[in-house]
Each structure stands twice: as C-alpha cells, then as structure tokens.
Design brief:
Radius of gyration: 23 Å
Structural class: alpha+beta
Helix content: 25-40%
Strand order of the largest sheet: 1-11-10-9-8-2-3
Oligomer: single chain
Number of helices: 13
Shape: globular
Number of domains: 2
Distance between the termini: 24 Å
Strand content: 15-25%
C-alpha cells in the first residue's frame, strides 16, 4: 500500500533516524521559522506545548487510561510517543478556545471600531496521532471546506506542517480501529514516524507524505531502511490494533442513533451526566462557538470575543422564550446522536475518531462505547420486549 492510505509505507521508502535525528528534526523546523508544538510532561499529564528542543518530549513516560481516570506511569524503555491521547488536541492551536474579533474605543465623542486581524503563525505539529490526524481532516471539512468557513482556522491550518506518529501503545479507552482512524496513519501528513524502542537502538522509521516533508527529510541524518526496523514497526502497529481498550458495536451507528431516540437509556445516562461539557471541550472535532462582549468600567472600551461553546450548555439551544433542549437527557442525546449519526448527514463522515478522550475526562466516567452498545442491545430486542429492531448490522 502507498503511504497515506492507512498503512505504513513499503520497505525502502524513507529511512531510519535515531534520537539524534529526532533532535535534528526539531532544530530544522525551528530554523525554518516554524513554531514547533508537541507532547511534553507537565502538571501530571502529557500535554501539548511549544517545544524548544526534542529533549522536552516525554521520553520514558506512558499513561494509564480508564473511564474517568488518567495517570502517568514510568516506562521501562525510553519511548517518546508510546502514550495515548492526553487532554489536549491540535484543535487547541487550529481552533483556539478564545479569539478576539474586534475592539471598540470611544474618545471625544467618536467611536473607533478595529477588527482583529490574526497574526501570521506557522505551526509544526510533532506527534500527531492517527486519530488526531483524522480529526484534523474532519475539522478541515467543516471549517475550511464547508458552507461557513472560518478565517481563523483557515489561516492557522494553511501553513501547518504535520508530523504523524503511528500508534504502537493504545490506551485503555482507545477505539480508533472501530472508527477506521488508526492505529496506522492515514492521509494528510507531511512526515510520519513509527517508533521502535526494542532491545536494539531507539529509532524511528520515517517517511514523507508531501514535497515539503521530503525536503525536510533530506536535511536529517537518515540511514537506509533495514528489514528489521520495518518489521518491528509494522508489528508494533499491528499489535496496537489488536490491543484496543474499547470498541464500538459493529453496527451502522448512523442508523442506530436515528432509531433509538426514544430509548430509555437516555434517561438512565442522564442520571449520571453532569452536563458539564468536558466531553466537548476535549473532543478533537467539536467546533461550536459563541460570542462574549466585554467592556471596561468606564464604558469607553469594548471587545468581542469568540469562545468555545458546548451543546451541553443550557443556552446553546436558546430561542426566544427558552432553550429547546432544557433537560439533561435531551442535551446528552443531542451530543451523541450528532457525533455518531447526523454528522454523516451534514459532513459526510462520523464526528468521532475513537480517541477516547471523552471517556477519560468525564468526571462521572460515562463511556461512549458503553452507551452505543446499550442502545444497540435495546434496539436489537424484539418490539414486544420494548425494542425497536433497528440496530442493523454494519454493511
């Protein structure tokens, strides 16, 4: 298979770099004027932050993930990318949580309104998981290729250089295989790395996916690809596919969501749901925003900010007279049915990439895969037993 179609490239393509090559990669990107963002350890988690060198990567750190649980753990090896998705996604940089749109000043009886023009920025994202690579593609479809294009996202995305890292260590809440988004990297990257940290030397199988990626690869201390590294890399990715911590029921999720709108499960999950919106904040594809206007105490200066919003917010569906979705069950149902179902109708794909963040960062440990399975179980029961018989098998 060719690079970019969801499987590692063939032997002989690209090359192999060591940790010195990884350090050189960061240096080359910085020398080209790119702002390098990658994973690093901070505040008891692996988060995304600007990197000044490869030394800031989380060498030797892994994570333990379960519903409502996230813990760092020391690894026996020095792997840098053998850890599953953390609380941040690349959405934080491409679709920032707060963006000032304009400011207004009143002086001597005159009002001056100044629109905020986003400054030039060019990112290099180092360590993009296959699930997050798919998430970026999903947001591209919504915010760049959709009917309502976002100039802030478009400006930040246009110059972004993506370095994907194929997954060899899935977390307990990962289910990218179910969503077709990993653990091998799909299309959209400029470079892709597959890490090998076995008894031999610590190394990375690297391949390019764009002309610029090939240019940067040519500047690195690359050695020829060897069969042992390719086999170890392929085995690591294949093993990750067999060790997913979660899975979705093998049904047509779009059809399942449409046919279970009256299922009692919505009321059951709402008894636990706090409608806090954590799941939408950590989701790498959620994109809803609202606006906030602020003024100073004199009233002479005002600003308008665009900020992230959540469909769990009571005001998210507010129309004249009150909110459309006033209950917790209706708001949870809106989120799940849109993410797994009606996203297909709007954007031609699922809004879920199987990263599992919503499971980990839910304070009451609600599990999207468990909820989908419960709806499928209800739908599969005969109508006489209260089911709807609409959870058809996935084609």
């Amino acid at each position: 298979m060719a690079v970019g179609d969801g499987a590692p490239g063939p032997a002989g393509e690209g090359g192999v770099i060591g940790t010195d090559g990884l350090a050189a990669l960061v240096d080359v990107l910085l020398a080209r004027g790119l702002t390098v963002v990658g994973p690093t350890v901070r505040d008891g988690a692996i988060v995304l932050d600007e990197l000044a060198s490869a030394e800031q990567l989380p060498f030797g750190w892994g994570v333990e993930l379960e519903a409502g649980t996230y813990r760092l753990r020391a690894r026996a090896d020095r792997a840098a990318f053998a850890n599953a998705a953390g609380p941040h996604s690349w959405k934080n940089y491409l679709h920032p949580s707060r963006v000032r749109q304009w400011q207004a000043d009143r002086s001597a009886g005159r009002l001056l309104v100044t629109a905020d023009e986003p400054g030039p920025v060019r990112y290099a994202f180092l360590g993009v998981r296959p699930c997050d690579l798919r998430a970026i593609a999903v947001q591209d479809r919504v915010l760049v290729g959709g009917a309502h294009r976002d100039p802030v996202y478009r400006g930040r995305r246009a110059g972004a250089f993506l370095i994907a890292v194929e997954c060899t260590e899935p977390g307990g809440t990962c289910f990218c295989v179910s969503m077709g988004s990993g653990p091998a990297a799909g299309p959209g990257y400029d470079l892709v790395l597959t890490e090998v940290a076995d008894a031999g030397d610590h190394r990375f199988w690297v391949r390019s996916g764009s002309p610029e990626g090939a240019e940067i690869l040519a500047e690195l201390p690359v050695r020829a690809t060897d069969p042992q590294t390719v086999e170890a890399a392929r085995s690591g990715v294949a093993s990750a596919a067999d060790r997913m911590g979660r899975s979705m029921p093998e049904v047509d999720l779009h059809r399942l969501m449409a046919g279970t709108l009256d299922a009692p499960r919505w009321d059951e999950v709402a008894e636990r749901c706090l409608t806090c919106g954590n799941c939408t904040m950590v989701c790498p594809t959620c994109f809803c925003t609202t606006t906030e206007d602020v003024t100073d105490l004199t009233g002479d200066h005002a600003e308008r900010w665009r900020v992230w919003d959540s469909c769990f917010d009571l005001d998210h569906s507010y129309l004249h007279g009150g909110p459309v979705r006033g209950s917790a069950p209706s708001r949870y149902r809106q989120w799940l049915t849109h993410k797994l179902g009606t996203w297909w109708d709007q954007f031609g794909s699922s809004g879920c990439v199987g990263c599992g963040r919503c499971i980990v960062w839910c304070p009451v440990a609600i599990d999207i895969t468990e909820e989908a399975a419960a709806l499928h179980e209800w739908a599969a029961r005969p109508a006489a037993e209260g089911g709807d018989a609409c959870g058809g098998d996935r084609p």
